[in-house]
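Apologies for my clumsy wording, but can you show me some protein sequence, whichever is easiest, together with the matching structure tokens, please?
=====
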Amino acid sequence: MIAIGKINTLTVTDINQLNCTLSDGENQVNLSDTDSSSPLKKGDQLAVFVYTNKSGQLSATTKRPYAEADQFAYLKVVDENAVGVFMDLGIEKDLFIPKKEQRWPMVKGKSYVVYIYLDEGNNHLVGSTKIHKFIDRETHPLEEKQEVELLIGEETDLGYNAIINNRYIGLLYANEVFEDLRVGNKRKGWIKKIYDDGKIDLSLQEQGYGHILNTKDAILDKLKKNRGHLALGDKSSPEEIYQTLKISKKAFKKAIGALYKERLLTISDEYISLLNADSSSSA
């Protein structure tokens, strides 16, 4: 069965001067446009995005939309009218967001995180900025320290709500974010803590002992490239540490503490140095 609002692999069954018809063996759809530079022939298989066009008919395109049905995306409003707005989906037809699905009034020219779904009443794709309605709140398979994909959803008083693996939602605390995050950014993240009530804390830093090992290697590599010295120490700000090493201050202190115990470096309030830095640089 052809899935509307999704990428489908269909077979070319008919070609004439006006139309190219595709089929899944049961249903047919016309190809509206293609990015293919080579001529099509019967029997070819195409990966196409299927949608309902302005006339209410199914159409297919080889162009890739910015997102599909049942996904979250960060899209731009390109038009508006009395009943809603239209967002650029990356294909011929824009995505409609009715006013009733707008968490706040949406403005032409601005971008928003939306959830895309199929209106089963008319088979048209629509969107909503009321993203909490579409978050999966059932028991999830996520585990602490697990690597996940994040979409930054909104800024809050505590930090940033982020959509996890296109299904769940978690929180990045502002005091643990040391880069310029913006709504709509996609980032790799990690599950920091899962609470009994299902709430999830997130981190942009890898969690666990494996991260300490990676961080130690990164610090040693940075020291060797900087003649054995770095102007970072116990009193350095989290921002300074992140700007230089892309890690949190907590991770930095754990790693340099481990390196100190291994007698690989010396530590002060303002700097760290390889233990043999002075002798190696003077040789």
Summary: Helices lie at 209-225, 238-245, 249-261, 277-282. Residues 217 and 255 are 9 Å apart (CA to CA). Residues 279-283 have pLDDT under 50 and may be disordered.
